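Document type: protein sequence-to-structure record

Subject area: structural biology

Format: plain text, a pair of labelled lines:
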Amino acid sequence: MTTAFSHIACCIDDSGAGRTALEHARALRDLSGGRLSVVHVIAPAPFLVSMAASLGGAPVHDAEAERRAGEMWLGEIAAGVPGAEAVLLEGHPGEAACDWARENAVDAMVVATHAGRIERALVGSFAAFVTQHAPCPVLLVPPTVSPG
């Protein structure tokens, strides 16, 4: 049998929409028999948070603690999907995910669509960035659509 998708990447966050996207990615992997990577990107602290911390007005951003927590959380998520691998990245979320996909021969990405208007205005849409810059087809999953 020829595998339609040999490497699927599902980009998730800690939301219901992210879990729904992972359900779709798992179903797609089960149909194609390919590899599944569960990807999460830790974004750098926003400039204003870093500036406030340096002036003593906010807690200092602890990137190492955030990374350890992210590794544990993502490892637990991936462990719940037989055969999936956890991939934790750092940087601008859209760029980091697309660069990693390009470097790791990903041939399908699954991404949830769920950001509200305010979040999109402040930080941009991860899903929109990925659809425009991914090296492969992208499956956009609305948060209320179940696989099946």
Notes: The chain has one domain: 7-141. The helical segments are 16-32, 47-54, 63-79, 93-103, 117-123, 126-133. The domain at 7-141 is CATH 3.40.50.620 (Rossmann fold).
